[in-house]
Amino acid sequence: MTAATHSTLFPQVPESADAVLEGLDPEQRAVATALHGPVCVLAGAGTGKTRAITHRIAYGVRAGILQPNTVLAVTFTNRAAGEMRGRLRQLGAGGVQARTFHSAALRQLQFFWPKAVGGDLPRIVDRKIQLVADAATAGRIRLDRGELRDVAAEIEWAKVTQTVPGDYAAAAHKAGRESPRHPAEIAQIYGDYETLKRDRSVIDFEDVLLLTVGILQDRHDIADQVRAQYQHFVVDEYQDVSPLQQRLLDLWLGDRDNVCVVGDASQTIYSFTGATPDHLLNFRTRHPGATVVKLVRDYRSSPQVVHLANGVLERASGRAAEHRLQLISQRDAGPEPVYTEYVDEPAEAEGAAHRIRELIASGVSAGEIAILFRTNGQSEIYEQALADAGVPYQLRGAERFFERAEVRKAGHALRAAARFGGNDSGLDAAVDLPSQVRAVLSGEGWTSEPPAGSGAVRDRWESLAALARLAEDFAQAHEGAGLADFVAELDERANAQHAPTVEGVTLASLHAAKGLEWDAVFLVGVAEGMMPITYAKTDEQIEEERRLLYVGVTRARHHLSLSWALSRSPGGRPTRRASRFLDGLRPGSSGSGRRGAGGGPGGVELGTRTRAGAREPLAGARRRADRKVARCRMCGRTLDAAEMKLMRCEDCPSDMDEGLHDRLVQWRARTAEGLGQPAFCVFTDKTLIAIAEAAPEDEGELARIPGVGLRKFRAYGSDVLAICAGRIVEDELGGVDEED
What is the pLDDT of residues 235-260, one digit of tens each? Predict the structure, then answer.
């Protein structure tokens, strides 16, 4: 049996309807051939649900049972919808509408608005923060920036749960929500916000769904027109639908039941936005004759990873836990998950970066490695650690691949070459499609070897390199293809948001990682207070945190590392402990002797921290006792992690040597330019300030400055000490020369 979640990059279109079913396992085939009536697919992580439902649609289309233009497949992200369109195209089922709920609703709203209301559809506001601020001001309520975001989120929750301003307080209390301000104040702001929108003739993102629902409810002729167009519905990630989205789906369906829903209650992690698994769990009650298929064969993860994933849910409680799926790995055995305890967060970040370098050296692609954390605020320390280690990375949630400036520019260049390439002498030596693409991309900044370090220069190179690799794959799959064919492929991929892989370690929150997978995953900050997060108080909130960890674990195919730190800052009190969700799973914890199908409880590794070239264990109590609290050298206050590099409070006066700092800045700029990388990859601004304040006289003093790790000490230590000693000075042109 072939892996359910993997396919070649450019597979051949199946020759027939029966060929669409080839390679599916028995349960996936059952999904693909259940084309009539209500169908509920309970699909565990990594079990090939997207494969099953796209093959279901394609089989129905190729067999003549479904007409492409009458099928509407809805999901929750543009990326997922784009992936679905791309797979359907590869299966010979182009023309099927695959959209997000909002995209499908907006398309209908724009089409029917002139008929239902008259005139043009009001403008949709990109961000509601300013409107919320104006509404608060109108009610004489002062909100800081954080409160503005939180109140905006409360308004979004109220609208997707179909709660009007007057009912907000009661609804929030019933749902157990902790309002950022008094519920009466939020209700007032919510009401003023709606009034402002009407006065300014604008609508927001949630109004797209609300107005579409309103039109379909009030105008039966329009509802009939929509139902005549769409006869068959597929809903992915059904555990995440909100009451408003379910209402829209009901109106699309009318009195019909040709709907297939796919979901996993154990992956419900967006309840704070109004999502609820109740619709999935109640589907068989609403549709007693529904066909139900369970997908439990995990094609993504090794038995060791699957064993841990099952173990995370083993102690779960609540209704979703009652319907959990026991995954069965279909892959060969892999390494045991590694549990690592560090003395503090900087040590945890350094440890992750070190192990990632080892994985890359062993042959694991940087693009197949991810660091996942609970909150976006944890990202910075890992960005710095990876930059210090010379490891390229990308932040999940950044702009889409085909919207990047360098990709758009490269696309224009490739399109021009396809049209006028016969007059381009630069293409004369190019003998095939890949070499033609490389020749064009070289004019946009691509080189055969990547630039050193990370940052914007490396990011641009990685984007262009992804296009070059895509050209090679395309040429292998399409013999005799030319530049025009490749440009057409890029256009189709851009429309489907089907981006090629960009090389670089992914940094992402656990929520942003949903639906993605990597060969190696580092789950960091798996400690009490972060996982579960401090503000998770109720049993329901705690269980959602458990499910979030489950989602993180199931992102890994082969290598999985879980880590936590005993304190936040170097020298801090080691009061933290590993997450309760790991109890009974990691060695040494309560009940860790229990075993289940799929493998043992995993390995253990002590955390390490690099100090002037030595790697030393930091997990023992003796070592922790030797660490002293870090205090400001100016006022004596205890420092946090962000202030450790300066060894003083941010607002305490600096005793920096300004001249030395200027020389260091000029040296850094010249060094970074020579390496072709951003200046911060040499030393960050704070590290340069710390060096200028300390003015180290020997290697020991320099090595003790936070931010000067072993790699940078070896690379730049002699230059920095020479500048500090005055042996390298500025010349009149702003360069540097050695004194006699």
Answer: 999 999 999 999 999 999 999 999 99
Residue 730: partners with Cβ closer than 8 Å, 6 or more residues away: 662, 663, 666, 736
Report whether 43 belongs to an annotated binding site: yes
Find out whether 197 is annotated in a ligand binding site. Answer: no
Query: Is 46 flagged in the annotation as binding?
Result: yes
370 a known binding residue? Answer: no
* Strand-strand pairing, 614-617 and 608-611: antiparallel
Name the burial class of residue 594, with classes exposed (0-12), middle (13-18) and buried (19+) by CB atoms within 10 angstroms of its CB: exposed
Q: Give which of 604, 585, 603 is closest to 595, Cα–Cα.
A: 585
Question: Which of 74, 6, 79 is CA-nearest to residue 496?
Answer: 79
Q: How are beta strands 728-730 and 736-738 bridged, if at all? A: antiparallel
Closest-CA residue to 514 (of 239, 317, 295): 239
pLDDT tens, position by position, 342-394: 999 989 999 999 999 999 999 999 999 999 998 876 877 888 788 888 888 88
What Rg value do the Cα atoms of the chain yield, rounded?
A: 28
Q: Where are the domains of the chain?
A: 17-109+211-295, 123-200, 335-398+503-582, 401-496, 649-725
CATH 1.20.58.100 corresponds to the domain 649-725? no
- For residue 192, the surrounding DSSP H or E stretch is helix 183-200
Note the pLDDT of residue 274. 82
- Both tokens of residue 679? 């200046």
Q: Find out whether 49 is annotated in a ligand binding site.
A: yes
520 is in an annotated binding site: no
**CATH H-level, domain 17-109+211-295: superfamily:** P-loop containing nucleotide triphosphate hydrolases (3.40.50.300)
Q: What is the DSSP string of 196-260?
A: HHHHHTEE-HHHHHHHHHHHHHH-HHHHHHHHHH--EEEESSGGG--HHHHHHHHHHHTT---EE
* Structure token pair of residue 182: 């008094």
Instruction: Supply 482's token pair.
Output: 């030319």
The domain made up of 335-398+503-582 is a member of CATH 1.50.10.20: no
- In this structure, what token pair is assigned to residue 383? 């960005």
Reply yes or no on whether the pLDDT at 188 is more than 90. yes
Let me know: does 573 contact 350? Beta carbons within 8 Å.
Answer: no
Distance CA 433, CA 296 (A): 42
Does residue 673 register a pLDDT over 90?
no
Do 736 and 729 form a contact (C-beta atoms < 8 A)? yes
Per-residue HEC secondary structure of 640-707 comes to CHHHCCCCCCCCCCCCCCHHHHHHHHHHHHHHHHHHCCCHHHCCCHHHHHHHHHHCCCCHHHHHCCCC
pTM: 0.67
Same topology, domains 17-109+211-295 and 335-398+503-582? Answer is yes
DSSP for 468-495, written as a single string = HHHHHHHHHHSTT--HHHHHHHHHHHHH
